[in-house]
Amino acid sequence: MAETETVKCGRCDEWFELEREKIAKIKKEGKVKEYICPDCDEEIKANE
């Protein structure tokens, strides 16, 4: 099982467990300054 880390959504302030590899990939890509949970991400995309 992959190691996980708890991250806080920058929009709704909920806490989520993510695999460390996924967090590293997000940071490496430099696309975001803060984590956005899947629910908030979908809501943002729907409003664009």
Short recap of the structure:
With 48 residues, the chain is an alpha+beta fold. It is built from 2 helices and 2 strands, in the order E-E-H-H.
Give your account of this protein's structure:
By secondary structure, the chain is an alpha+beta fold. It has one domain. 42% of the residues lie in helices and 21% in strands. The protein contains two helices and two strands; from the N terminus they run ββαα. It has helices at residues 20-29, 38-47, and strands at 4-8, 15-19. Strands 1-2 form a two-stranded antiparallel sheet. Strand 1 and strand 2 (15-19) form a beta hairpin.
Sequence-ordered SSE layout with sheet pairings:
Layout (H helix, E strand, L loop, with lengths): L3 E5 L6 E5 H10 L8 H10 L1
InterPro entries: Znf_FYVE_PHD, Znf_RING/FYVE/PHD
Q: What is the helix/strand order?
A: EEHH
- The fraction of residues in strands falls at 15-25%
Q: Report the mean per-residue pLDDT as an integer.
A: 86
Principal-axes shape call: globular
**Class based on secondary structure composition and strand pairing:** alpha+beta
Q: What composes the largest sheet?
A: 2 strands, antiparallel
The low-confidence runs, each spanning 5 or more residues with pLDDT under 50, are none
Strand order of the largest sheet: 1-2
Radius of gyration: 11 Å
Number of strands: 2
How many helical stretches? 2
Oligomer: single chain
Terminal-residue CA separation: 36 Å
- Proportion in helices: 40-55%
Number of domains: 1
